[in-house]
Design brief:
InterPro entries: Aa-tRNA-synt_II (IPR004364), aa-tRNA-synth_II (IPR006195), aa-tRNA-synth_II/BPL/LPL (IPR045864), Asp-tRNA-ligase_1 (IPR004524), Asp/Asn-tRNA-synth_IIb (IPR002312), GAD-like_sf (IPR004115). One of its GO terms (cellular component) is cytoplasm. β8 and β9 form a beta hairpin. The protein folds into three domains: 36 residues; 82 residues, no CATH class; 107 residues, GAD-like domain (Gyrase A, domain 2, 2-Layer Sandwich). It is built from nine helices and ten strands. α3 crosses α5. It is α+β, with helices and mostly antiparallel strands. It has a five-stranded antiparallel beta sheet with strand order 6-7-10-8-9. A three-stranded mixed beta sheet has the order 1-4-5. Strands 2-3 form a two-stranded antiparallel ribbon.
């Protein structure tokens, strides 16, 4: 009789990630993982078909190469025939694809592994697979069109989902000012709203000092204030100060013109109404405000 499995092969169970990785051969038997692997294969096949039909060549580039530092540290591999010397694993095929362009291969791609020795984050890992491509004699709009059409093809072919084109485009400054990042998730919805002009003549000393020092007063509107207990708001105070902010103010919008605020006694009714109008806040919303210098 065999021993009991460390976990049942069932998608309905929440399994610890470390346990899943320890028994990876069992984890890969789960229907969800089988489906993921199959979908990944189909994506790669459709990308190849799409690019082949656009006159691209799939060309492999070396893994064992010299160090060409990019955005991270290199992984190095000792050379057996040259003691004391090392190869570096490529962070990307950047130099090789540029050589291919010079050599007359005007459209290149490969689905390739890349290696970067850097701290782990949600979107960072030591090795990953990317679609790498390069084209000669094109402009930016041609590149956008090619990539958009590829995604439209993939979603329609594999998921039967129709993707609307052209894709929304925003510039760097707009992304930073509205979302605080250059790669915003637009589903998030809670844009950063600049309230500085509302408080130019404010008697609230904190806001007055920030504006005097050419800082900004910005806010995020949250749809439901019931999730923001006093305890949670106190935690948010500590959380944002750990990033260098001076503090957090809030305004909870109640029925009619009623409201609850941590800075109620410092703000005039006119300022509250202007904030509500600028943020399009409604009953049940909470407005979170931070005032500090602009970086």
């Amino acid at each position: 009789i065999s021993e009991a499995l460390p976990f049942n092969i069932d998608d309905k169970l929440e399994i610890n990630d470390n346990l899943r990785l320890k028994y990876r051969y069992l984890d890969l038997r789960r229907p969800k993982m089988q489906k993921n692997m199959n979908l990944r294969h189909q994506i790669c096949m459709e990308i190849r078909n799409y690019l082949n039909n656009k006159d691209f060549l799939d060309i492999e580039t070396p893994f064992l190469t010299k160090s060409t530092p990019e955005g991270a540290r290199d992984y190095i591999v000792p050379s057996r025939v040259n003691p004391g010397k090392f190869y570096a694993l490529p962070q990307s095929p950047q130099l090789f694809k540029q050589l291919l362009m010079i050599a007359g291969f005007e459209r290149y791609y490969q689905i390739v592994r890349c290696f970067r020795d850097e701290d782990l984050r949600a979107d960072r890992g030591p090795e990953f697979t990317q679609l790498d491509m390069e084209m000669s004699f094109i402009d930016r709009e041609e590149l956008f069109k090619l990539i958009e059409e590829m995604f439209v093809h993939l979603f329609k072919k594999l998921l039967n989902v129709k993707v609307k084109t052209p894709f929304l485009k925003i510039d760097y400054q707009e992304a930073i000012s509205k979302y605080g990042t250059d790669k915003p998730d637009l589903r998030f919805g809670m844009e950063i709203i600049d309230l500085t002009e509302i408080f130019y003549k404010s008697s609230f000393r904190v806001f007055e000092e920030v504006i005097k020092n050419k800082g900004e007063i910005c806010a995020i509107k949250v749809e439901c204030d019931k999730e923001f207990s006093r305890k949670k708001l106190d935690y948010l105070q500590l959380f944002i100060t750990s990033f260098g902010a001076k503090g957090l103010s809030y305004i909870k919008i109640k029925e009619g013109k009623d409201f609850q605020s941590s800075v109620a006694k410092f703000l005039s009714p006119e300022e509250i109404e202007k904030v509500k109008l600028k943020t399009k806040a409604k009953t049940g919303n909470i407005i979170l405000i931070v005032a500090d210098k602009k970086e």
